[in-house]
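Operator note (shift B, R.M.): manual run for ABC transporter ATP-binding protein requested after the automated queue skipped it. Running by hand, logging everything below so the morning shift can see what happened. Input copied straight from the record, untouched. If output looks odd, do not overwrite the archive copy; leave it for review.
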Amino acid sequence: MIEFRSVFYAFDDVPVLGELSLTIDDGEFVLLAGANGSGKTTLLRHCNGLLTPDTGQVLVDGTPVGDDLIAARSSVGMVFQHPRDQFVSATVGADVAFGPENLGLERTEIDRRVEAALEAVNMAGRDDERIDALSGGEQSRVAIAGALAMEPTHLVLDEPFTGLDEPARRSVLARLEALSADGTGVLLATHDLRDVLGLADRVIAMRDGQVAVDGPPEDAREELEGLEVRVPDR
Ligand code: ADP
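Run finished. Output pasted below as returned.
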């Protein structure tokens, strides 16, 4: 469970999150919507301690993130907007192994996790391939595998479809759908809900650092109007 309790955060004295409260349960597929600049990335970066609230608290599974960063980063796997920025190794397998290696796990456990994570994103057996030779969609899937290798309860993705062509979008979407069906919580930030609205249990939309909409997708559609969010045609 991820819990925001009255979280206030400002960049250079400009408030970005304004006393925001929110609870995300395990297993939920949540869309975090909102126009560019509405604070989605800032909110996500609080989920695993990349940013810390000026006031208020963020808790993962009941523990304040800052009290146990390793636990928070194990429970909440983060996939950034530009996967290229998050790779640390030249090859697929080495990159996916990086997180579990940092947890100090046994080699056999690391290998098991890498294999399972690559399997989950349809990249099984491609450990030795160079990341820079992969397509954009494959790179996105490797980034997701890197997060999955931590065996997170929640997978958090920031605009994961940016720069992907249609087949790649479909492939990443299919992987997210399968992961969600298997019980992994998904928190996906996007300003474009067209492909994803049907997958979600809940839509949270932000405006000016506040939650403007929070509810099931079928109820959210009309409320999303005026928030500069793209919704699917009826
Ligand atoms: P979104 O993800 O919804 O596009 P962000 O969380 O990236 O929104 O940004 C919210 C606001 O915070 C914007 O006004 C943005 O300009 C500002 N902001 C984001 N990152 C920084 C930063 N590193 N320094 C100063 N302002 C920032």
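Quick read of the result: The first strand starts at residue 2 and ends at 11. Residues 2-223 form a domain with the Rossmann fold fold (CATH 3.40.50.300).
Leaving this for review. - R.M.
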